[in-house]
């Protein structure tokens, strides 16, 4: 009987020691798990997003390739976001509603080759220009009738909807003969078909299309020179200052020139 009593006590003692060891081990593992979770959370902590909009239909400035947004505007926006310590988040919106979307706070800024105009300045605040380019007339390569802008009188002219190009087209022809397109590229592609006689668009867009062997040609000198800048909501001086500072940085450190060389073979800053 005494033998069984001692055996019972021995079992109790072993179980107690096991519980103490397990308790200590559990506490240590819990600490390690907590530390691991904190480190993981820190590693996964996201930078604030810089959401900037464009039409996504303005090759080579901004367009979709394999479902991804690419182009000069996209890369300039990414470089600006990096300098501001933010995550780039380019999005698309129809060109004619870009400013409305900005005012509705759908995005932080527009980096979509938008020219500074007095009318737009009434609605938004612009950054410093990030490139300059001219409005250019383009025609089909086999068109021998149009030799200067003056020959556009009464002709059918293609322009992007809600763009400043429509205003100048109306100086040469009537409303019926101004054809609106969602994309400059589609308008230019319509020239060889004969559905339109000319297109007024950004000089760079047309020159890149010619480089890619679209059978078109330019007519005369640019009609005017536009300054493209980055709109933000009226009164958002904090963001505007950050964007301007970031722009200066990428211009001064060569990042801007590198991006411009990639897409155009030269700097298009125009300073």
UniProtKB/TrEMBL annotation:
Entry keywords, A to Z: Signal
Top-level taxon: Bacteria
Which N-terminal stretch is annotated as signal sequence?
A: 1-22
Enumerate the Pfam families for this protein: SBP_bac_3
User: Domain Solute-binding protein family 3/N-terminal: where?
Assistant: 49-267
Q: Which CDD domains match?
A: PBP2_Cystine_like_1 (cd13713)
Q: Where in the cell is it found?
A: Cell envelope
The protein's matches in InterPro entries, at most eight in alphabetical order, are given as: SBP_3_CS (IPR018313), Solute-binding_3/MltF_N (IPR001638)
Signal: present as a keyword of the record?
A: yes
Q: Which PANTHER family match?
A: ABC TRANSPORTER EXTRACELLULAR-BINDING PROTEIN YCKB-RELATED, MEMBRANE-BOUND LYTIC MUREIN TRANSGLYCOSYLASE F
What protein name is recorded for this chain? Polar amino acid transport system substrate-binding protein
Identify the species of origin.
Desulfotruncus arcticus DSM 17038
